[in-house]
Amino acid sequence: MKQPECEMVRVMTAEYSIGIDLGTTNSVLAYLSLHDFDARPMVLPIPQLTAPNQIESLPSLASFLLIPDAAQRSDGSLSAMGDRCVGEFARRNAAEQPDRTVVAAKSWLGHRGVDRHAKILPWQAPPEIDGISPIDASAAYLSHLVQAWNQAFP
Length: 154
Hints:
By secondary structure, the protein is α+β, with helices and mostly antiparallel strands. It has helices spanning 70-74, 88-93, 105-109, 134-152, and strands at 16-21, 26-33, 42-43, 46-51, 54-58, 61-62, 64-66, 85-86, 101-103. Strands 1, 2, 3 and 6 form a four-stranded antiparallel beta sheet that branches. Strands 8-7-9 form a three-stranded antiparallel beta sheet.
């Protein structure tokens, strides 16, 4: 009887230690090389929409989420972000479209008086706006940070 061939098992070792600050106003991703004794923590620049059709890398991600209106979705200027936009453009747009902008989603995660899974944000938005839950808004920020990491370190 022939013995089975041994399969090579690839053992992955961590290259970085990563820290995420999911903030109420801003979120940051910092990292540290585990293979360099003299390494210092670094803040990852986060690519994000800052104006229509303009993406910039900033040291933090504004913890704001914009639910674009029909005009913003159809003109293609926000197409890089999909049907929701997180980051600096959403923050800059908050005063103009407060009923479409989620702010302080993290604050609602621990609030005893609300269902954090319910689509309650943007707070007091009209019923025609398809809202988002505090958990899903926070997940959108984290997802954006993960995408930024994967883009910087494929």
